[in-house]
Amino acid sequence: MSRYRRYLIFWGYAFLAPAFFLYLLVDLYPLLWAFKLSLERYSIFAPPQFVGLANYAKMLQDPLFWKSLQNTLFWTVVVVPAIILISLPLAIVLDAAWLRFKSLFRTIYFLPVVTSMVAAAFVWRWLFEPTFGVVNYFLGLLGLPRPGWLADPAWALPAVMVVGVWKQIGQAMVLFLAGLQTIPREYVEAAKIDGASTWQLFRHITLPLLNPTLVFVSVILVINAFRVFTIPYVMSSGGLQFRPPGGPLDATRVYVLHIYDLGFRQFDLGYASANAMVLLFLIVLVTLLQMRFLERRVQF
């Protein structure tokens, strides 16, 4: 190896070193420390005690673990498809050549993304207020039943999921718009000349060529769904209400909220870390499954 080659390698690693050190400090070290905590019975009031896999075994007997996991899976199964089914047609319309004021409409639909999640959750909580809320007011005008929403275990989680969908439509829309603009217009024009209908254009050209974007959006949305915290926390226990988050009757107790309650309210840091490790495993597993079954090779 020449001296000049060794010189380039040295400076290459020298420039990589700060970023690599930051990765070790911010990502890898906390991850390994959390795994260590998951094998211990640890509280801020007592020294750590090694218990092996006892925390993981405890989860199998914990009804709140299964309840929070069920709520999170229900959130994922409903919210992620809803966002895709709304944002994809919206992106197609906003990408249409005939539409005027595109920038205005794109800005309007993207506003929820840049709105403070805490502030938005407080506003939605007021909208869903059972007695004086705007939603029930209009339902009353239409002669429809007025649910208790956040005060009713049957309606609390669906109400919170509405906010989750509203908050993320703009993000998915922008990503789909970026993907649509990479599709060569020649393919679309050639298909139109051959007499393809709008549905045939979407099914045989747009959707296959949009597959990489669709996979990326799906992965991001599923990860966000498993990590959801702020919206159910604020809407179930925010403000001056000092009740435990996730109510009523744990109807909105999603998995990250469950971890937060264990670690920062009950101070059972070992058990909370074990739950966090399970969350990490689930996210990695579901992401790999999405990549395996959704990804299609695309050749322009």
What are its keywords?
300 residues, mainly alpha, MetI-like fold, two-stranded antiparallel ribbon, 13 helices, flat
Description:
This protein is mostly helical. It folds into 2 domains: 3-50; 63-294, MetI-like fold (Orthogonal Bundle). The protein is built from 13 helices and 2 strands; from the N terminus they run αββαααααααααααα. Helix 3 (63-94) crosses helix 12 and helix 5 packs across helix 11.
Q: Describe the biggest sheet?
A: 2 strands, antiparallel
Which fold name corresponds to the CATH topology of the largest domain?
A: MetI-like fold
Task: Determine the number of helices (DSSP H or I, runs of at least 4 residues).
Answer: 13
Give the distance, in angstroms, between the N- and C-terminal Cα atoms: 41 Å
Order of helices and strands: HEEHHHHHHHHHHHH
Count all strands and give the number. 2
Return Rg in Å. 24 Å
What is the assigned CATH homologous superfamily of the largest domain? MetI-like
Name the CATH architecture of the largest domain.
Orthogonal Bundle
Count of spatially separate domains: 2
Keywords: Cell membrane, Membrane, Transmembrane, Transmembrane helix, Transport
Subcellular location: Cell membrane
Organism: Thermus thermamylovorans
Protein name: Sugar ABC transporter permease
Short description:
The protein is mainly α and 300 residues long. The protein has 13 helices and 2 strands; from the N terminus they run αββαααααααααααα. The chain is flat and about 75 Å long.
